[in-house]
Design brief:
With 337 residues, the chain is of the alpha/beta class. Helices cover 26% and strands 23% of the residues. Strands 1, 2, 3, 4, 5, 12 and 13 form a seven-stranded mixed sheet that branches. The chain starts with 31 loop residues before the first strand and ends with a strand. GO terms for molecular function: oxidoreductase activity.
Length: 337
Amino acid sequence: MKHHIDGSPLESDFEIKMETLSLSVEPGSKDVIVKNLYVSIDPYQLNRMKTYSSSQTAVSFSGSLTPGLAIDTYGVGRVLTSGNPNFEKDDLVVGLISWGEYSILKEGVILNKLDPMGFPLSHHVGVLGFSGLTAYGGFFNVCKPKKGEKVFVSAASGSVGNLVGQYAKLFGCYVVGCAGSRKKVDMLKDKLGFDDAFNYREETDLNSALKRYFPDGIDIYFDNVGAEMLEAAVSNMNTFGRVAVCGVISEYTDSGKRAAPHMLDVVYKRITIQGFLAADHMAVYADFITTTTDHLRTGKMQALEDVSIGLESVPSAFAGLFRGDNVGKKIVQVGEE
């Protein structure tokens, strides 16, 4: 990152720097040197790149980024050398690495040994990583679904939304998603099994659109976009409806764009609106992994990944998130396995 970014990110906002690194650990150091293999590309990082965002003080991993320094991110790598007794050369690891070819990780950085369990390493960045836990914890813990309930998912072809829709269908809910192109809409219905889906770009009145797709109202709204979509969803919620606020990507690039749901609807329909983070749901991590790996092995769930190759593709991969370029989890493979 060359400088702070307070609007939509562009490829030109980033640069690749070359540094000479020693691939050995000083005696007595507990550093771990990792060859990065797959790195996550996530919209929330834009809030870290701004001059200021309230999210920067929320949790440790959302802190402000300094221009000119490497950007830390969730990813998978392989240990090259280690002064930490918990890690050995050639261990596969998952945790906070960086947008780069190598990471030098100090003691205390979130890093765990990785058992691939027979799945592609990229899955552990997406469907079996924080994107998956966000979807699982958000849907089951925050939304508290009941079989047969009607679920609406925005940004449904994205890294979290597509998984929420799949969990909801497997649980026995009626699911409608929205996305930004006809191709994505068809994919949601034909590949992922959504009951219905629509292209929000083709709708001039989101409130009316949701009335068409949910004539009997919405019980659960999994919100990934905020702004007008949240307003329309709240207007169409049923009594005791639940809204899980996972992200507000439509507001990240426009500081003047804010959701203003009708609060009388919230009061008289007794609607619950709750924000959350993946870290809130570590208590269900084991259940999440068991359930999701079972669904993947039986073919009941699909891992939707959009993988670019090479460190040089990171800037376009990140900027593309805000243009709607990605389908599923955006990942960059920065090193050969």
